[in-house]
Amino acid sequence: MLIVIGAVIVTPTVIAIAHSFTNWNPGYASPYVGLQNYTLLLHSAQFHTILRNEAFLLIGVPFWIAIPLLLAFLLYERVRFSGLFGAIFFFPATASPALMGILFTLILGPEGPLNSFLKSLGWKSPPDWLVTANLVKPVLIAVVAWATLGTGIIIFTAGLSAIPPELFEIAEIDGATWWQRLRFVVLPALHRLIEMWTVILVITVFVALFPWIYTLTNGGPGYSSTTVDYDIYQNALTNGYFGLASAEMVYMLFLIGAVLVVVWVLFGRRRGGEDFV
Amino acid sequence: MCGCCSDGAAAVKTLSRHAASPSRTFFVAICTLPMLYPFLFLIATALKPQADFVSNPSGIPHHLTFANFSSAWGVADLGSALLHSLLAVGVGVVLTVSVSAAGAYWFYLHRSRLSTLLRGALVATMALPPPVFIIPLYVLISTSGLANNLFVLGVVYAGWNASFGLYLVHTYMKRGMPPDVLDAAQIDGASRPQILRYVVLPLLRPVLATLSVLAFVWSWSDLLISIVLIQDPGRRTLIPATALLTTRYNTDLPANAAAVVIALLPMLLVFLLGQRHLRRGLLAGIGK
Questions:
Q1: Which end of chain B is more exposed for a tag (fewer CB within 10 A), N or C?
Q2: SS3 category, B99
Q3: What CATH number did the domain enclosing B246 receive?
Q4: Which of B58, B131, B220 sits opposite A207 (nearest CB)?
Q5: pLDDT tens track for A213-256
Q6: How confident is the model at residue B249 (pLDDT cuts 50, 70, 90)?
Q7: Distance from A19 to chain B by nearest Cα, in Å?
């Protein structure tokens, strides 16, 4: 246990942090360069673009929460075949993101089904979604919404089934509409679960988009869809800048930490000791 | 409806206070279309002759063909890639489950402040995702001559999944395995290995099944770790082979679709058989 986790995860992480202060050249001397990698990144226009991309993608988080929440609440009441529907929503979330990325390159391609559908609606020349700089990030947000929907529904459905049904009955007797029950019964009861899902989504934005970017856009056009995890891969394995990639990794950890602090503050007072991360 | 979906349906049946509403059911059915359509399109494309695809890219195929499957299978050498994936993921799953079970059992038997701290530290490595450790791991592995080794890839998968495994199995043990059970077995004269074999493992079977399914799905889905650690084209695993096929031979889209179908089938199979475990593992992961 100790050896496997130690060898695979802990040792490399420590090595990377140590080497982020060097001009790391595996197999050769790696001279110490102090904070050079860090300042280089801070002054790099490319790294600024990447940070802006990450910030833009974080705009997706409220959508990635709201859509599964609404669907989970819909599925919760008076729907037949809800198990079957749940499975249909869930499967894409368990399928390999890399494969789903390839599938979406076909769907979003210039001659793909989305554009032929839009043409049939009368849009003469719909855009090429994955190679247009100011469309590619919204498209990514939509694709991630599709891919995370099933997981969100599972989590919120579990949360809903833990709410005493009497609460809904009382609300209904008092004349609460569907919307009011969502607002005043579901949202308060699922507060902690929504917070956890937010944490998972934030981490996803920073560390789990690699297979999507790799298959859908290769970070392009230009750097307009490059994420930190994709850039770490590029810097180390394509460009051979291992020290720079390590410094970028350290920045990434700090950024995740910073955003999670914001999430924690936004969600207000501290509850329970059971933390996810 | 398949048996695996029944728990959700049963929950709704007992909870809903009113009869099912056809209009709402219909509305939800409409909502599932965006989830289903991409897969229908994928299968239709994979079965379409190239010429048919050019003239009719998004409609129903006019003729069916399996030529795309054989061309994808041949060009990307998916047969070997499938075997490589089975080997690496197989090693990964077996190692994840055994290491997690052994680790959790050890922590269950040895309770002290130090062991709690150690367990916390091991579980906390869950917070270190592959983009954090993959680059230095690549350097370590390639400088020690272990690159392009599928067995090593399996070990890496285990290291990646074992922190969650430890958490999952240990939590399950604490809740579902009172120490009295072990004591009783000991009083009856059972030896340590016998207790493990006849008492602990049978009790752990459900959680180990859940962990196996999760470890399979995660490792099978992986692109990043495999594409970095296995760069020899002759040893690629299935997902990287498929991803590289689609970037290199971008023009033959039906063959790309066929490759995706091939790589997806094992995942669909595991999903249909183990959906309950996937849900359970997911919910355990968020502390439900």
A1: N
A2: helix
A3: 1.10.3720.10
A4: B131
A5: 999 998 878 888 999 999 999 988 888 888 888 888 888 988 99
A6: low
A7: 9
Rounded to an integer, what distance in angstroms lies between the CA atom of residue A240 and that of residue A24? 9
Q: How far apart are the first and last CA of chain B?
A: 27
Indicate the pLDDT class of residue B130, thresholds 50, 70 and 90: confident
* Cα B19 to the center of its chain, rounded Å: 37
SS3 for A32? strand
The confidence score (pLDDT) of residue B139 equals 87
Q: Is residue B195 part of a domain?
A: no
Contact (CB, 8 A) for A255 and A206: yes
Which residues constitute the domain of residue B94?
70-179+206-285
Query: How much is the average pLDDT of B87-98?
Result: 95
**Residue numbers of A between 114 and 173 with CB closer than 8 Å to B:** 116-117, 146, 149-151, 154-155, 157-159, 161-162, 165, 168-169, 172
- Residue range A118-136, pLDDT digits in tens: 888 888 888 888 888 889 9
Q: Class assignment of domain A2-266?
A: mainly alpha
- Full-model pTM: 0.87
Cβ contact B190:B199 at 8 Å: yes
Q: Looking at the domain assignment, is residue B136 inside a domain?
A: yes
CA-nearest residue to B59 within chain A is A113
Chain B contact for A242, CB < 8 A? yes
